[in-house]
User: Which sequence fits this backbone?
């Protein structure tokens, strides 16, 4: 240590200036971090010319970052508007602009994004000092797991699409096989790159990286728009099924039929079952790419780059929430299996729709009451509100509120269709009750989660209190025996306090665990298999096939994302209680 202390005095002037520069930057970083944490301005004082010089450099750096964000955002906006114009032209004038033209545009964008992703992984991230920081809050386990799950399902979807096109190759163009093949390569590389680098805070080639991220985000957004609005494949499958029925009846048809009916049935069912996962995958990728874009050029404090010491998730002390949640999960699995078995036939009987919606009509009010009770308990708590600026929490709230719009939009459209047609039938009454209860449950659950996220977790204050206690009692560290006795007393006190939780903390844990299991159940049912919202026929007859197809494909992926995001927020509420 003395040698290190005397080294700056013996170093040449260039080294001394570099060290002084680092000291100034470190000092300013500490000032900025302290001002951000406390919400108070930095303390004024006399500044040397070196401090003023590097303050000017830091301001210019921040201005350059804002300029890069603005330019890359405008790039993405123009790409989205161009692609949106192509898609709208295809819908309203499919003679001048065809689906093939939209596929060509998307193929070009996928190729450019693919080249940038490969360059980012192979070139940018391997440069010296490229990734000095990694955001610990970006890319949590559930996001990366969803990215891998939905990416794999989208890959299989395109494989089924290629198989279906190959089985109709005698009456289709071979060029149609190129577009699913390009998408398979793009999705594979993108999933791998986002899984590996979703936490990066890149420090080199920042403007080029921002533009690449925004181009890839715009490409995924256009893929989502096309998947929501394009029903050509569904219409082709429906036309082929009708042609098969006419052929069995003895009538001739000009529709392109499959050469092998059994193989085509596998491809057809696989495509229809996995189609919603493609829209969900695009939404997940857009969220991950946006977080990476925000982290470009971001510098974290040393204590922020490490993972927060959150307590482990365990079920100690929760009984009623676990039992009720498991009951809802088992009942949901049974209803889901029965409905899917019935859906594998030529038609679905009305009693199975009744069973499906009756389950929702029983679970949703229970969840709403639990959320309202939890919100009331939050108001009675003694924990103070966490008013510090937290970008991750702000993004969680925005995603939670935005994803809720999907199912809420479908619910409002269903309410209008039912009230305007046949509101007195039993099934329609159940669908109306389901829609109203779904709106109430989304509002109540959002209130409960947002209120819980803004409460300061109890485990955050524990390290400071423990440190103060250790500083106040240094004489107890005298021997290993005294240290062991102290640890024994502390462990007994912890177990005693945990086994005797006050009723508010215990109730919050029970409610959070019950809602976690219920949201997992309500995530599973629309994520896999046939969707009753599209198969019951009421809204499809009222709004028309294409309009209702667009509404459902817009709302259901957001609803699935909402349930997954709610599980992540409820886990944080459970741990913080």
Assistant:
């Amino acid at each position: 240590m003395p040698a290190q202390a005397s080294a700056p005095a013996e170093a040449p002037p260039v080294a001394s200036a570099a060290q002084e520069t680092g000291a100034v930057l470190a000092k300013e970083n500490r000032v900025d971090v302290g001002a951000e944490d406390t919400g108070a301005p930095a303390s004024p004082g006399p500044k040397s010319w070196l401090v003023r010089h590097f303050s000017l450099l830091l301001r210019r750096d921040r201005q350059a970052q804002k300029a890069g964000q603005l330019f890359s955002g405008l790039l993405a906006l123009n790409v989205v508007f161009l692609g949106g114009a192509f898609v709208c032209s295809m819908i309203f004038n499919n003679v001048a602009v065809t689906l093939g033209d939209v596929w060509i545009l998307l193929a070009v964008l996928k190729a450019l994004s693919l080249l940038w992703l490969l360059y980012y992984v192979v070139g940018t991230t391997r440069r010296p000092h490229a990734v000095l920081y990694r955001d610990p809050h970006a890319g949590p386990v559930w996001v990366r797991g969803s990215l891998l799950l939905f990416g794999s399902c989208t890959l299989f979807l395109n494989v089924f699409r290629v198989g279906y096109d190959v089985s109709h190759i005698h009456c289709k163009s071979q060029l149609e096989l190129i577009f699913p093949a390009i998408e398979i390569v793009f999705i594979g590389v993108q999933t791998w790159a986002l899984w590996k680098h979703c936490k990066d805070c890149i420090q080199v080639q920042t403007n080029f990286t921002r533009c690449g991220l925004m181009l890839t985000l715009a490409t995924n957004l256009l893929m989502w728009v096309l998947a929501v609005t394009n029903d050509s494949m569904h219409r082709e499958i429906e036309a082929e099924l009708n042609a098969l029925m006419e052929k069995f009846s003895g009538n001739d048809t000009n529709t392109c039929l499959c050469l092998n009916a059994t193989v085509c049935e596998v491809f057809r069912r696989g495509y229809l079952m996995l189609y919603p996962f493609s829209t969900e995958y695009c939404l997940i990728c857009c969220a991950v790419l946006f977080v990476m874009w925000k982290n470009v050029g971001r510098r974290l404090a040393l204590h922020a780059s490490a993972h927060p010491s959150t307590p482990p998730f365990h079920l100690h002390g929760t009984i009623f929430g676990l039992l009720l949640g498991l009951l809802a999960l088992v009942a949901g699995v049974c209803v889901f299996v029965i409905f899917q078995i019935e859906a594998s036939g030529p038609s679905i009987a009305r009693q199975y729709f009744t069973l499906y919606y009756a389950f929702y009509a029983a679970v949703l009010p229970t969840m709403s009451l639990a959320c309202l009770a939890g919100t009331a308990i939050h108001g009675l708590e003694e924990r103070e509100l966490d008013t510090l600026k937290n970008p991750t929490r702000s993004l969680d709230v925005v995603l939670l509120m935005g994803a809720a719009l999907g199912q809420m939009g479908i619910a409002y459209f269903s309410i209008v269709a039912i009230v305007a047609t046949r509101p007195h039938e039993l099934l329609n009454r159940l669908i109306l009750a389901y829609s109203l209860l779904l709106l109430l449950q989304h509002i109540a659950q959002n209130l409960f989660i947002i209120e819980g996220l803004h409460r300061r977790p109890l485990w955050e204050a524990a390290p400071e209190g423990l440190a103060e206690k250790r500083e106040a009692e240094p004489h107890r560290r005298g021997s290993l025996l005294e240290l062991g006795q102290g640890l024994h007393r502390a462990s007994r006190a912890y177990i005693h306090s945990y086994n005797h939780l006050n009723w508010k903390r215990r109730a919050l844990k029970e409610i959070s665990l019950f809602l976690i299991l219920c949201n997992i159940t309500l995530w599973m049912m629309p994520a896999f298999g046939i969707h009753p919202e599209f198969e019951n026929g009421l809204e499809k007859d009222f709004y028309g096939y294409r309009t209702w197809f667009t509404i459902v494909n817009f709302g259901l992926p957001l609803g699935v994302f909402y349930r997954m995001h709610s599980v992540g927020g409820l886990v944080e509420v459970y741990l913080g209680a």
Notes: The first strand starts at residue 131 and ends at 134. The two ends are 45 Å apart (CA to CA). The chain has two domains: 53-249+256-299, 317-457+501-576. The first helix runs from residue 2 to 10.
